[in-house]
């Protein structure tokens, strides 16, 4: 019996199928071993198959990604890809963002309304990170300056409202500026350039705060050369009104209940400061509080002129107010 090529092929196929049905385990074991022994060939085979069956591949991937493990693999893969292709990734993000711009804005607005604190915390964090980069800070400052000069009137108004709303922050910022080198330089320069304005400020201030150095207080000081704080023997420097002049303007010339000069007391600079400090903290009086930084500057200047370490004065103050619950020490 002679078979044609085609017939021979057909017979071989049938035989093979029979054999496979009977020896499934054996066959698959053999295949497995073959794959391990010939990784190159196996890979090539798979590549060919994949090229021929893109639909099937896509379907498999889709199903794999729907599983827990698949999601994780995909996440890791994506992360790696983004790190490797930062430019490309940024472009993709930008494109997709602007593709649904309106929708995205709406989403952001909603997300912000749902949890503003989270957004604020995120903004704080990212700004803190950016500020560590001097190049970024410089660029940001430039941008802000430009924005400011585009509409100075509006910005000035905005600044006014902000300062009114945040007096404490404003005070701290100003102090930082005054104490900085560039701040001091600018202020001194401004002072030198504007003597008239400064004089006008002084007049205005004295008119608003009729002040201690009147003839009466001068006279009192001449007759009280030592600080009247108990056990202090420093020279007196300033005359204090025991009943504060802003609360009792009627006793401003020092006479109280018909006696002469009994509303006045002479203190050295430190004790004058301490007196107001006590009223500001223990009685929480904002009028005294307002005086403090001005008076402390005087103390600092005096200490500097007399070569007294300011730390010693700080300790003296602390001891004075120890246990009285002073808040600012
Ligand atoms: Zn004193």
Q: Secondary-structure element order, as H and E?
A: HHHHHHHHHHHHHHEEHHH
Please mark out the parts with pLDDT under 50 across 5 or more consecutive residues, or reply none: 325-329
Q: Which ligands does the model contain, each kind named once?
A: zinc ion
Radius of gyration: 42 Å
Strands of the largest sheet, in order across it? 1-2
**pLDDT averaged residue by residue:** 87
Describe it for me?
The protein has helices at 5-22, 24-37, 39-52, 54-65, 68-84, 86-99, 101-114, 116-130, 134-150, 152-165, 167-179, 181-193, 195-208, 215-222, 269-282, 286-305, 310-321, and strands at 238-241, 264-267. The protein has 329 residues and is mostly helical. The chain has a domain at 215-328. Helix 4 packs across helix 5, helix 7 crosses helix 8 (116-130) and helix 11 packs across helix 12. The termini are far apart. Mean pLDDT is 87; it is low at 325-329. The structure holds zinc ion. The site of zinc ion (ZN) has 8 residues, from helix 15. Residues 227, 229, 232, 234, 267-268, 270-271 line the site of zinc ion (ZN).
Features:
329 residues, mainly alpha, two-stranded antiparallel ribbon, rod-shaped, disordered C terminus, binds zinc ion
